[in-house]
DNA sequence: GGTATTTTTTGATTGTAATCAAGTAGCGCC
DNA sequence: GGCGCTACTTGATTACAATCAAAAAATACC
């Protein structure tokens, strides 16, 4: 638990009261390889902070699995739209490796946001960071060739590259496994 | 000014003190058609709330102008990365129509976030909404055909469609003007 | 009102990555 | 250690939108 508190303390002041509330509310989880953190077409009730391990979010597009994102140590993962708006969506989340995580429900978060200005700060800062990260990804998808996409992935996701099957990387990059294979053969 | 305050009050409680601080800090602007709100390769120092009119953000890619986004009445516009991180970036912002806007600097915002929990709430809620909107755009860019992209634009941006040259719409959608023209000819 | 410029349309060709189709290698599991 | 499955590679073909090119329409400007 102290690792989650450390993470939060990087972005906001963490009062003893807030730390205590977080300790009470956060749930700890262990997931085996391929175990689901969240099932498609259900409401995603929790947001997960990955302490150890690696997870992915994906959905089924015309019978093919499309990976939409990854989260490893010290990162957050949830099905954002479903979680924030309380509606089902097509995404599922699964552990790529055995994973340990803490989670909070939306109710927990909203309570903490209400109770603690500093937690509201944390929420704002994290959302801003996610927004900027997503902008960069959008630009990469929009303007770069498959080779550049792969290069970008290698430099920005080096720590997890070796832990992922290439098919997942390909669909995350918006290219086919065949194209990724050819890109790698050349580089 | 009261329109900006109304906008903020939609997302958070607006105390008289916060309203007063906003009145003191927000600057009012009038921009003529094609006038720049922000110049490329400089630090974007302000975020603009559009009271009346229409603006676009764009950059120069290999000699071609690529439109990256629009903001009309009741929407915010800034060059996000530059504004938040205080570094230059290649984006410029220009008025598509004569435009009236209010603006806040990062210093203003950070002061207000510090001073007022309710303003920090507003920041978090707006960033969350922007994040979800961007996710939807990312999915549209990634998975849909030019015709579907245009359809999506028509349904989600109807109020501004008629106010924009098609070339701007095309580059926003990540397709060429020729392709957009052909899509429109068919539908 | 007429000229100049920009925007939009239409047509022909090309390039790139997707698709289709095998085949090979790697790995988990008994 | 061998079987069976999944992951990855390689090759041939196709589809789609980009590019190149030019004409037509709309708009701005004197």
Automatic annotation (TrEMBL), chains A, B:
Pfam families: cNMP_binding. Residues 31-115 form the Cyclic nucleotide-binding domain. SUPFAM superfamilies: cAMP-binding domain-like. InterPro entries: cNMP-bd_dom (IPR000595), cNMP-bd_dom_sf (IPR018490), RmlC-like_jellyroll (IPR014710). This is Crp/Fnr family transcriptional regulator. It comes from Hymenobacter elongatus. The lineage of its organism: Bacteria, Pseudomonadati, Bacteroidota, Cytophagia, Cytophagales.
